[in-house]
Amino acid sequence: MKVFTTSYKSRGLKDLFFNLVKSCDPITAVELGTQQGSSAILIGKALNKKGKLVTIDLFEEKYRLEPHGHTHAQMDVAIKNIKEAGLENKVEVRKGDALEAYQNFEYVDFLHIDLCNYYEIVFKVLDKWVHKVSKMILIEGGVYNYWQKEIGLKPFTEVLNLPFITDKFDKCTIVGKNDHSLTILTRKIENE
Question: How much is the pTM?
Fold first, then answer.
């Protein structure tokens, strides 16, 4: 079986990512930012028999953002990789916009956000999706990287301190190798 590369693997967070998805035990899962399907495969392998993942990407060259956004998103490659992993019945690849795709889901148990770590993008995505997520959101990133500082980007972690997040979710950021990080948002249990 082919081993797919993922930044989670190379940065020491692959097992944590996999086990977080598994512990969430989602039936309905969504991923925003497919690239070539690496993390979709990890999610697909972590799902139980009833679980399904829809992974969504723009798959458009014009959305490659400099200096960090060197996307390699290719829909045909993602579909091929997912099929080779034997997950074509658990993982569906869709072309779409993360800011519009929320309209296609009444709710999701689990959301993985693997987009640009730009404040504005993460704010817009969470604003649209946060009310639909019943269990967990995993966000690729959370450490304010040197490249973000160099070009004056506002860190997306500031979004996580806004009331529409803090009122509904507990948060934790885990740092792996080379300051690569994974931010975990878990839905708070509401008092009866």
Answer: 0.88
